[in-house]
């Protein structure tokens, strides 16, 4: 993996030779892609001389730390990296540049249980539905995956009312935590979040992704903001994160690389 990162840094340095002077690039990023970003960011900074100033927050939801909320109250960013639907919503409002947006990875929603606990069957829609009804407590995020579960999926499979009293919304980073931490402490029997936010947390066992027909088709995308001070450097970062050479890091994080834009 280190070889891939060195190679990527060399390719980036060659591609940006003679480009603009080093700059401070303000990045707002949600949790699902943060693992990839945090691993690749040092190579980008080393190759370009740019410095990444990072702010974290959910892609959506009612948290004051959510990226759309931060932007709406005047916090500045050159680039946002977040749920693809959330990026599209910002583009529709003119907050980010629709022609300066790149798809970075595809993502699935998955489930965890506390380490050592029985792993329920969620392979089919019916077994998934039964697992939800049988569970004593359920946790999901306050961002994209949790919004999808609570407002779309649970009503779609006809059990929203039965789950309401035993479901818990978990506030994510930076002031909160991954859903898996709540499950690891035994505060919820099962937990749901995007797979990349579940698989590297200690104290839980990954059960698997939701059935294919129930997946929301999530992705992560990056977009340069309308008021970016460093649009060139911001776009260079997105091209770096979406390059073919970044694919091993993306795969390791539990995401699917995007091979073509």
Give a written overview of the molecule.
There is one protein chain. With 261 residues, this protein is α/β, with parallel strands linked by helices. Helix content is 36%, strand content 25%. It has helices at residues 2-15, 34-48, 67-72, 84-92, 125-134, 144-156, 160-164, 179-184, 231-241, 247-252; strands at residues 24-29, 51-56, 79-83, 96-107, 109-114, 138-141, 167-170, 190-194, 204-209, 218-225, 256-257. The strands form two sheets. It has a six-stranded mixed sheet with strand order 2-1-3-10-4-11, sandwiched between helices. A five-stranded mixed sheet has the order 7-6-8-5-9. Strand 1 (24-29), helix 2 and strand 2 form a beta-alpha-beta unit. The mean pLDDT is 91.
List keywords for this structure.
single chain, about 260 residues, alpha/beta, six-stranded mixed β-sheet, five-stranded mixed β-sheet, about 25% strand, globular
Strand tally, please? 11
Radius of gyration: 19 Å
Order of neighbouring strands in the sheet with most strands: 2-1-3-10-4-11
The helical percent reads: 25-40%
What structural class do the secondary elements suggest? alpha/beta
* SSE ordering: HEHEHEHEEHEHHEHEEEHHE
Low-confidence stretches: none
Q: Which word captures the global form?
A: globular
The largest β sheet comes out as: 6 strands, mixed
**Beta-sheet strand percentage?**
15-25%
**Total DSSP helices:** 10
From the N-terminal CA to the C-terminal CA, the straight-line distance is 24 Å
| Rounded average pLDDT | 91
């Amino acid at each position: 993996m280190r070889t891939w990162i060195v190679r990527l840094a060399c390719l980036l340095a060659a591609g940006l030779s003679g480009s603009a002077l080093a700059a401070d690039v303000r990045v707002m990023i949600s949790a699902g892609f943060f693992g990839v970003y945090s691993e690749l960011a040092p190579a980008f900074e080393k190759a370009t001389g740019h410095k990444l100033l990072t702010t974290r927050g959910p892609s959506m939801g009612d948290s004051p730390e959510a990226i759309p909320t931060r932007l709406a109250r005047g916090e500045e960013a050159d680039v946002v990296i977040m749920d693809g639907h959330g990026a599209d919503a910002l583009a529709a409002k003119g907050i980010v540049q629709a022609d300066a947006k790149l798809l970075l990875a595809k993502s699935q929603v998955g489930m965890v249980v506390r380490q050592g606990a029985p792993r329920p069957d969620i392979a089919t829609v019916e077994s998934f539905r039964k697992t939800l009804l049988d569970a004593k407590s359920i946790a999901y995020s306050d961002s994209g995956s949790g919004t999808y579960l609570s407002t779309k999926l649970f009503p779609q499979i006809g059990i929203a009312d039965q789950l309401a009293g035993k479901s818990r919304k978990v506030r994510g980073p930076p002031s909160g935590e991954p859903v898996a931490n709540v499950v690891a402490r035994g505060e919820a029997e099962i937990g749901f979040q995007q797979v990349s936010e579940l698989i590297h947390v200690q104290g839980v066992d990954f059960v698997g992704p939701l059935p294919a027909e129930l997946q929301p088709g999530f992705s992560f995308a990056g977009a340069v903001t309308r008021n970016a001070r460093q649009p060139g450097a911001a776009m260079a970062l997105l091209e770096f994160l979406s390059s073919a050479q970044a694919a091993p890091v993306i795969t390791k994080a539990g995401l699917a690389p995007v091979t073509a834009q």
